[in-house]
Amino acid sequence: MALRIIRSSINVFFDGYQSFTSIAALLVLPASTSILLSQAMVPLSEPVIKTISLRLSAMFLAARFPASAEFFELLNLKLAQTVFSFVATLPLVLTLLLVAKACVVVVVCGGRRCQQGSLPLSAALRLYRSILPTHLFNSFVVLSANATVFIFLFLVFNAADVLGLASNSALLLLLSAAGAVLYSVVIANSTVICNLAIVVAAVDGCGGLLPVLKACFLVRRHASTALALALPANLGMAAVEALFQYRVIRQYNVSGELSSSLLWEAISIVYFYALLIVLEVVMNCKLYEACTLANKHEHEQDQGELKPEEKAALFV
To answer: What residues contact residue 141 under an 8 Å CB cut-off, 6+ apart?
Structure first.
């Protein structure tokens, strides 16, 4: 099912290539630039990130997490960088990027095409009123997922401390590895649900909690498919982020100047990153359609298996 959705998404992307390239160039490009530059500004913003990291370290120590565990040291650094990047990119993400996602949903689910570089902005702005509160609630969902994992790890490590097992380095390493796997699985599932909730909000015209609940209902039997779809998109964007760091930021730090060739290379990488974001939204739209059809088919099968008197009682 995942391969079928990927092929369908690629066909839709190339079928509406002019529409999606216009959306990527005019709306997603500024947001993708801010995302990539915010990650490049991490070394320049070391005092801010160090302050955030110290606050997180104090929280981990207060929760009696093992200070020597490499997992929590790495998690501390990544969380600090994520918080900094989230705040730095928030204005453009809440405006241009959400409008771009609404445009993509209009093109894919509404069957509309951009002609002569125009964008379906009027329809997208109507959807934006539903997407914005859903995106804000998604941030709360991701924060709650992080808090839930931390609370569970807090209970586990404190139980190990009470039982006198905290001095066993092998056990701490095993618990840290299990915590890393648990954290990755929870964040991956919450991210998939949040991305699908954006599409649900745009298609159904609802916002906030309801799209998230419907997204959970849609993927309840298709979690593996949703995760399989999210993997190539996330790997592709991570590869482009690494390419931007290596080809643009590293070259700029070595030469100390922004030449015309380096500028055009940076624009090309950022534009490719914007196309990947558009393609990810297309894949979420096709996932929404596939899950909706699958659930409808399962419901019809369940209805067909009921006896006539059970159907009558159900309708009553």
So the answer is: 190, 193, 194, 212
User: Is 273 in contact with 36 (CB distance < 8 Å)?
Assistant: yes
Are 199 and 284 in contact by the 8 Å Cβ rule? The answer is yes
The residues near 120 (Cβ < 8 Å, ≥ 6 apart) are 103, 106, 107, 110, 112, 114
**Using an 8 Å Cβ cutoff, are 114 and 23 in contact?**
yes
Structure tokens at 217: 């209902």
Residues 185-228: tens digit of each pLDDT:
888 899 999 999 999 999 988 888 899 999 998 888 788 888 88
Give 123's Cβ-side CA count (13 Å radius): 19
Tell me the residue type at 63: A
Domain boundaries, the chain: 2-315
**Close Cβ partners of 314 (under 8 Å, ≥ 6 residues apart):** 306
Query: Per-residue pLDDT averaged across 135-163, rounded?
Result: 84
